[in-house]
Amino acid sequence: xxxxxxxxxxxxxxxxxxxxxxxxxxxxxxxxxxxxxxxxxxxxxxxxxxxxxxxxxxxxxxxxxxxxxxxxxxxxxxxxxxxxxxxxxxxxxxxxxxxxxxxxxxxxxxxxxxxxxxxxxxxxxx
Length: 126
Hints:
Layout: E1 9-12, H1 16-29, E2 34-37, H2 40-49, E3 54-58, H3 66-75, E4 84-88, H4 93-102, E5 106-109, H5 114-125
Parallel strand pairs: 1-2, 1-3, 3-4, 4-5
């Protein structure tokens, strides 16, 4: 199935530079409807106002982390089917296991390329 680049995407990261990098990678892939949030609670608010076809969230953020956001999304019957990709600088096995148990759709370790991001998105939306 072809990638639907018209789907709205929410990227969540507390570092402006990382938001810009992910936005640019998504644009290279062909996505145009991209919103940003700087932490999990802001992201949750946006998700309750607009239906996103994909969430790409950093793990390490304050005050609400990516894993806390993921747990909130999965416990909300209106949001729980949203594909959710976790981004982290750490590839520790226990983090991957924790994210899987919380219901993550896919997992990306920084740094990554547009091709890697595209493959991960296709895996969760196709």
